[in-house]
């Protein structure tokens, strides 16, 4: 129990540090106005693992998350990016503690354990997946909640772009987050993008970094929207601002293209 309290307190302290020193950011975190995200990547081998893992998502994990009041949950397969096949899960919650202890809580849900048995108790002779990578993120103060595209409700055609920006230092990372809040959100919307979420990585790999997701009808729309964004006078002005342009505040970008699994709620 002491270890759990320590982990929760440490995550909370990290959240406030990343969010910045302003009272608004602190109040948003303290009052639960922002969501937190668990972003999971499952590395798989083509064949049986794909079916077992997708069945686990749809038949066990997502119903259990719904019982906890968590959602909408995004479930995606990697179409363009390194090391395919891979599945991604985006799990939102108002509670950092719930996300930090998620597997411990799932292990106490008898209904979940029964439905998840094939995946949860897979053996080394027939593993359900190769490895899982899990990150914990805090929603940006200026984009505090997941916003699924309208086509998610009707299971319409859609694809997603998942972008991760790595910065050379914590200070440069904070400057890039500030840049989003200083006009970049508005430029995305003006260009016709549909942002799904923006999140600061609190616990994960290759830190410091941030991750965000955009939704499109298809790759042609993706390319067209980015052309509009790049040529927007507001973007040219913002990106030329000496506060953001005097040094490289982003040193690496990971750019993935995902499509929703049938069970995805996003």
Summarize the structure in words:
With 266 residues, this protein is an alpha+beta fold. It has a single domain (23-260), classed as Alpha-Beta Plaits, CATH 3.30.70. It contains 11 helices and 8 strands.
Secondary structure: elements and pairs:
Blueprint: H1 2-19, H2 23-30, E1 36-43, H3 48-67, E2 74-80, E3 86-93, H4 96-100, H5 102-106, H6 110-115, H7 117-120, E4 131-139, E5 159-166, H8 170-190, E6 194-203, E7 209-216, H9 219-231, H10 233-240, H11 242-245, E8 252-260
Antiparallel strand pairs: 1-3, 1-4, 2-3, 2-8, 4-6, 5-7, 5-8, 6-7
**How many distinct domains?**
1
> Which architecture name does CATH use?
2-Layer Sandwich
Please compute the radius of gyration using only Cα atoms. 19 Å
Structural class: alpha+beta
What is the CATH T-level topology? Alpha-Beta Plaits
Uncertain spans, ≥5 residues at pLDDT below 50?
Answer: 1-30
Our measurement of the CA-to-CA distance between the termini, rounded to an integer number of angstroms, reads 34 Å
| Secondary structure: number of strands | 8
Strand fraction equals 25-35%
Helix content: 40-55%
Whole-number average pLDDT? 90
CATH class: Alpha Beta
Strand order of the largest sheet: 1-3-2-8-5-7-6-4
């Amino acid at each position: 129990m002491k270890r759990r309290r320590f982990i929760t307190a440490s995550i909370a302290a990290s959240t406030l540090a990343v969010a910045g020193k302003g009272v608004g950011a602190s109040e948003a975190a303290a009052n639960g106005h922002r969501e937190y995200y668990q972003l999971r990547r499952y590395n798989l081998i083509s064949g049986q693992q794909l079916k077992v893992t997708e069945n686990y998502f749809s038949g066990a994990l997502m119903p259990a998350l719904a019982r906890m009041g968590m959602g909408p949950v995004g479930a995606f397969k990697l179409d363009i990016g390194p090391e395919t096949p891979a599945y991604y899960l985006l799990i939102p919650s108002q509670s950092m503690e719930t996300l930090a202890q998620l597997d411990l809580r799932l292990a106490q849900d008898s209904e979940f354990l029964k439905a998840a048995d094939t995946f949860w108790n897979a053996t080394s002779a027939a593993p359900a997946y190769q490895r899982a990578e899990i990150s914990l993120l805090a929603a940006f103060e200026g984009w505090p909640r997941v916003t699924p595209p309208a086509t998610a409700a009707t299971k319409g055609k859609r694809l997603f772009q998942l972008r991760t920006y790595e910065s050379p230092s914590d200070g440069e990372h904070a400057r890039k987050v500030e840049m989003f809040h200083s006009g970049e959100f508005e430029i995305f919307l003006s260009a016709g993008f549909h942002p799904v979420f923006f999140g600061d990585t609190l616990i994960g790999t290759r830190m410091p970094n941030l991750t965000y997701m955009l939704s499109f009808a298809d790759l042609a729309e993706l390319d067209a929207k980015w052309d509009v964004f790049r040529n927007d006078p507001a973007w040219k002005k913002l990106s030329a601002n000496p506060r953001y342009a005097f040094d490289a505040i982003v040193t690496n970008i990971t750019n993935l293209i995902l499509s929703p699994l049938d069970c995805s709620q996003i």
